[in-house]
Inverse folding.
């Protein structure tokens, strides 16, 4: 089978300036003091670094501080901006965790053959920039008998599977002790009740501390405004998930919460032709994922780090 794994390495770039974590409070105070025109001039360098985000977005409160009416207005603005920039009609929901749910993922490495369909499905489902072929998933081609991630090849080519190799998909592990959350200076990322680690993309300042803290290379920095043809935009979106992210922010896998919180399966799982992927609610004693964790010999990546991933691997 031909490999469609197309994840790319992050391009080299000059170091970004560190932004004061109290930026938003400061700029709001300045706005009130100086007036619109003077204050716009005063913060023009910062606004340039933020890729000239709209004024409404720049002064928007943190997601967890928004009232229901605030969210309605924010979502309406984002939908209108998407229409203006991409020529696509989209619907952005505010999908919240399902009570009594903790989502967990597992991959059967005996079955995964490295075809890369999961990478492609993630790319399309989550409205990634088309030119860079970005995805939240890397599939590493590994030598049998080795679990050293640094030796894995995410840019392998040719027919798969290859003799002497196995294939290891890696994405956000939705850790119970997420180091990415701990280092964020503005609390733009947090873990929700159903186990999914999310990001408020309108609050992220792009410092990339979370990207550096993640031991699984699971976070991506948006170096430019994503380019997606209107006909390829996935219109079924969610605020904390697959809406089109602005330039200058870090983004990550959310277990397709715009699907899974509505009772569907992640796009990567549905695209897998081998049945290697299993997803579900670990709190449900009748779920397939619960059976696997109780009956298979499962392991997690980099267990010694104490991040307590909610992403498991096993062999038959």
């Amino acid at each position: 089978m031909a490999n469609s794994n197309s994840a790319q390495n992050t391009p080299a770039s000059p170091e970004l300036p560190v932004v004061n974590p109290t930026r938003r409070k400061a700029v709001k105070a300045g706005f009130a003091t100086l007036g619109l025109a003077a204050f716009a001039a005063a913060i023009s360098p910062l606004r340039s670094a933020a890729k000239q985000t709209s004024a409404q977005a720049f002064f928007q409160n943190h997601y967890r501080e928004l009232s229901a009416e605030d969210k309605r207005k924010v979502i309406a603005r984002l939908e209108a901006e998407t229409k203006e920039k991409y020529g696509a009609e989209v619907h952005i929901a505010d999908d919240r965790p399902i009570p009594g749910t903790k989502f967990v993922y597992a991959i059967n490495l005996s079955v995964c053959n490295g075809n890369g369909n999961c990478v492609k499905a993630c790319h399309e489902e989550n409205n990634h920039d088309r030119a860079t072929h970005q995805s939240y998933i890397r599939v590493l081609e590994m030598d049998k008998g080795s679990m050293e991630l640094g030796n894995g090849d995410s840019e392998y080519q040719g027919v798969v599977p290859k003799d002497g190799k196995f294939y290891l998909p890696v994405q956000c592990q939705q850790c119970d002790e997420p180091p990415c959350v701990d280092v964020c200076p503005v609390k733009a990322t947090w873990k929700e009740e159903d186990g999914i680690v999310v990001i408020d993309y309108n609050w992220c300042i792009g410092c990339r501390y979370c990207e550096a803290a993640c031991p699984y290379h699971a976070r991506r920095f948006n170096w430019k405004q994503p380019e997606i043809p209107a006909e390829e935009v996935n219109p079924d979106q969610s605020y904390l998930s697959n809406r089109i992210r602005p330039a200058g922010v870090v983004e990550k896998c959310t277990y397709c919460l715009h699907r899974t919180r509505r009772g569907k399966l992640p796009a990567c799982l549905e695209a897998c032709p081998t049945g290697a992927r299993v997803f579900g609610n670990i709190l449900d004693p009748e779920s397939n994922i619960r059976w696997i964790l109780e009956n298979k010999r499962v392991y997690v990546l980099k267990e010694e780090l104490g991040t307590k991933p909610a992403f498991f691997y096993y062999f038959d």
The longest strand covers residues 103-108. Residues 23-93 form one domain.
